[in-house]
Write a structure and sequence with these properties.
It comes from Dichomitus squalens. The chain has 843 residues and is an alpha/beta fold. The chain is 41% helix and 10% strand. Strand 15 and strand 16 form a beta hairpin. It binds adenosine-5'-triphosphate.
């Protein structure tokens, strides 16, 4: 039972809202006031032009007013940040919350024993082949058999289906399951048939004859025809409920003879417009309670923040959840969204297309040679080329397949079958390969590029390890991809914020990945941190087994005041350039390479932009040039972007979307200061940590990586922001050779493509593949899996009946998958090798 969620649902944060309203009112009044005052131009007209002193005073006043405006915007931003921080602190320290809603004595403990417990365990083993329940599965089954209204929130692959499939076998009548996707329905029914369960589906894909047979059986159930077995589970889409009178009539008849056992709403967050997957047809499910009162609900979801929960309960007509658990109230179960068996790592991605495929090939061959995996790509073209290159560069050792919206349905099904059977090992796919894919033994999910949002990344990577055993979730990242993801999302509502959150995650070298997820969902979806709490640890305890928890501290470097000064310089240069600058141009200019940097379009919207160069007097504006390497300077730009000091602007050409960095209102926190102030620690707290280059003192080198005793990992991870041992999927000898060859590679041309006009776009001698990265063609993206809505995917299920190949254990990992109780034991033996550290030349 999730008490925090219920409290949150009840509680309105009045103080924070009041503070924000006061602030907005104050800001409004001050802006109104300045609007009413006569401006300098008015003064000039009244007093006559020509007085130099007056004009200069007017100019100065105008300048100061501009600064005040900037500072007011900054003030508003800071207060907003303060509000957010206050909310986070309250979340993290539940003692700040009221004691309201404490559970009174006398709750029904659904984790206990009931008269049906023996039968439940018997069916668990004989029908589903499992020895034990995972987390709150047993409690859900018990509340289900007790005919309660239930909301169950469990992560992707957490085992939600068992919560209704098992009780359906022990309950008279038919359980009606409403699910959004035909692919999901077909998959579930297939597996139930394999297990010998009498399940049917009534969808557009069901043949007329089959439909007639099903209606006859429902009629026989309603008539109590002797010898006619019950349909235990009937799967439909929400449209069936909304549109089919015949089906509603059949349900009516079942209801009259008490043979309608339960309504199960799968992916129940689709009910809410505030959820991430709103489906209008889900709102029509409000008729269920009106037409067939007394039939209990089970609403299932992997993501259900308080606001979505409110919508869900209202729409379905379910009672408010309380702690008292009176008989007609809704019971809420939630398990941690943190999956301990998933090991997250962000790996440096070489700047060339071939280099990144070589890295990926080495990673897969070293750590997952015979395993099943998925490589997620951003575009359809990427899928094709990554699949082909992986196969070619591994001499066929990695058997790949391609899955995206343009692949014909028959081919998709064939690929899915081959993947299930192990004939294809790695599917290179867009996000179209998502819902309905339930293969338990996916041992790794690699992201070839950043996802467009952290929500997407969480879901996609969550396809790994559904059988509860260890699996790797690897993201390849380079700073240039930051600009690519920005250009791809620039036309989407809220796309920029999502992309920036993804970028913040990818570029963070210190914070534990679990904590990052928890804080992201807390902020973006107002989901309580408690969703990432486990029985042993709260959400803010480091996991101890992601790359950032396992990273050797001496592979990172902090440059202290040099970083702050460089940040100040970058912001000053960007503000003074008088033109929009791409990240590459800004880095060039700030590092004293301005004469070669062609500028992007001027503020005058394209006028005369073709050949103009941006030049800045670095000594005057920035007290000299930025004294950092190119890769450090780019990493710093990304940091400044994710922390809100830069904003992005876009320029569309026929071939690409160019992305420019501009100082935001927040930048004034730095730029209003002098260099001396910044050197003496003035300005906002700001830091950026960098990956050390291989070969530098302290950087991981050769095979001499730091090893850490496993039992100490967690403690170290907690004590410091980076613990003693590095963890990445380290390619071995082959990578060493190839990375050496790339050591002198020039900077990627990809960022040049984003600059200026086409005639300025020079090929810097780099692979064409990198050029392609910046050509944004929406037609090449799989925006969502709508096209899958009516395709008939099939998949295999690791239900204990299928024999699964035990993954080859290459390093000590501990998880007790069988019992579903996973212990957070840090992995050991994987360390960052120097060939894993991206090798970019400095100029
Ligand atoms: N008690 C259990 N023991 C072992 N495996 C289990 C258990 N319960 C479920 N599983 C397996 O876990 C996998 C995921 O289960 P299920 O499809 O129900 O997850 P889900 O929560 O519905 O995920 P999604 O939200 O992605 O649909 C399946 O392969 C299933 O066979």
């Amino acid at each position: 039972m999730n008490h925090t969620l219920i409290e949150e649902f009840d509680e309105e944060d009045d103080i924070a809202r009041q503070e924000r309203e006061d602030m907005e009112q104050a800001l409004y009044l001050s802006l109104e006031d300045s609007r009413r005052r006569p401006g300098p131009s008015k003064l000039r007209i009244q007093n006559g032009a020509g007085d130099k002193d007056l004009e200069s005073l007017d100019d100065e006043i105008a300048g100061v007013e501009r600064q005040i405006k900037d500072l007011q915007a900054l003030l508003q931003e800071l207060k907003r940040n303060r509000d957010d921080r206050l909310r986070e602190i309250r979340e993290a320290h539940p003692q700040h919350r009221s004691d309201r809603g404490k559970a009174p004595a006398g709750n029904i403990d659904y984790s206990g024993e009931f008269e049906w417990t023996g039968a439940l365990y018997d069916k668990l083993k004989t029908v589903f082949g499992f020895d034990s329940f995972r987390s709150c599965q047993e409690s859900i089954c018990n509340a289900n058999l007790d005919r309660r209204d239930i909301v169950a929130i469990m992560p992707t692959g957490g085992g939600k289906s068992l919560g209704y499939q098992l009780p359906a076998l022990l309950t008279p009548g038919c359980t009606l399951v409403i699910s959004p996707l035909l692919a999901l329905i077909a998959d579930q029914v297939m597996h139930l048939h394999e297990a010998g369960v009498d399940a049917v589906m009534l969808t557009g894909a069901t043949s007329k004859e089959e439909q007639n047979r099903i209606y006859q059986r429902l009629q026989a159930m309603a008539n109590g025809t002797p010898g006619a077995p019950d349909i235990k589970l009937c799967y439909v889409t929400p449209e069936k409920i909304a549109n089919s009178k015949k089906f509603k009539a059949a349900l009516d008849k079942l209801h009259r003879v008490h043979k309608l056992a339960r309504f199960v709403i799968d992916e129940a967050h689709c009910v809410s417009q505030q959820g991430h997957d709103f489906r209008p047809d889900y709102q029509k499910l409000n008729v269920l309670r009106e037409l067939w009162p007394g039939v209990p609900f089970l609403a299932l979801s992997a993501t259900c923040p308080a606001a979505v929960l409110g919508d869900l309960l209202r729409t379905l007509g379910m009672r408010r959840p309380t702690h008292a658990q009176a008989v007609d109230e809704t019971v809420i179960f939630s398990t941690s969204l943190y999956r301990k068996n998933l090991h997250y790592a962000v790996l440096p991605k070489p700047s060339s297309g071939t280099g990144s495929i070589e890295k990926m090939r080495d990673y897969i061959l070293t750590h997952h040679r015979n395993d099943t995996g998925i490589v997620y790509c951003l575009t359809r073209k990427d899928c094709e080329s990554v699949a082909e290159d992986l196969m070619r560069l591994s001499d066929g050792a990695i058997r790949t397949g391609v899955y995206h919206a343009d692949v014909a349905d028959a081919k998709k099904e064939a690929l899915h079958r081959q993947w299930r059977e192990g004939k294809v090992k790695v599917v290179c796919a867009t996000i179209a390969f998502g819902l309905g894919i339930d293969k338990g033994d996916v041992r790794f999910v690699v992201h070839h590029s950043l996802s467009k949002s952290l929500d997407g990344f969480y879901q996609e990577s969550g396809r790994a390890g559904r059988d509860g055993k260890d699996a790797d979730c690897v993201l390849y990242y380079r700073t240039q991809d930051a600009m690519r993801i920005a250009s791809l999302t620039c036309n989407e509502r809220g796309g920029q914020d999502k992309a920036l959150a993804m970028l913040a995650f990818a570029s963070d070298l210190e914070e534990c990945r679990k904590i990052q997820f928890a804080q992201y969902f807390n902020k973006s979806s107002k989901m309580s941190l408690s969703f990432f709490r486990t029985e042993e640890e709260d959400a803010n305890t480091r996991c101890g087994h992601c790359d950032n928890c396992m990273r050797a501290p001496d592979t990172l470097e902090r440059l202290g005041v040099r970083t702050r000064v460089a940040a100040w310089q970058l912001l000053r240069v960007a503000a003074d350039a008088g033109r929009e600058l791409t990240m590459t141009q800004l880095c060039d200019l700030a590092r004293g390479l301005g004469s070669s940097a062609a500028a992007g379009p001027g503020k005058g919207k394209g006028k005369g932009r073709a050949k103009e160069k941006a030049t800045v007097d670095l000594d005057r504006v920035a007290g000299g040039k930025v004294e950092l390497s190119r890769e450090h300077t780019e990493a710093l730009c990304v940091r400044l972007l994710v922390e809100g000091y830069f904003t992005l602007s876009f320029h569309h050409t026929a071939y690409s979307v160019n992305v420019y960095l501009e100082p935001s209102a927040t930048a004034a926190r730095f730029t209003r200061l002098g260099k001396d102030d910044v050197e003496q620690g003035g300005g906002p707290p700001f830091d950026c940590v960098f990956l050390k280059k291989p070969g530098r003192k302290g950087a991981a080198s050769g095979s001499g990586h730091v090893k850490k005793a496993p039992e100490k990992a967690k403690a170290k991870a907690k004590a410091t922001s980076a613990s003693a041992s590095a963890s990445t999927g380290a390619p071995r000898a082959a990578a060493a050779a190839s990375s050496g060859a790339r050591a002198k590679r020039k900077r990627s041309v990809s960022s040049i493509v984003t600059t200026g006009t086409e005639d300025e776009q020079t090929d810097d001698g780099e692979d064409d593949e990198d050029m392609r990265d910046f050509v944004v063609g929406d037609a090449d993206m799989d925006e969502d899996d709508d096209e899958e809505w009516h395709t008939g995917l099939r998949s295999s299920r690791a239900n204990g009946r299928t024999s699964l190949a035990e993954p080859k254990v290459k390093r000590p990992r501990k998880s007790d998958a069988g019992s579903g109780r996973l212990r957070p034991v840090p992995r050991t033996g994987r360390t960052i090798r120097d060939e894993e550290i991206i090798e970019l030349s400095s100029d």
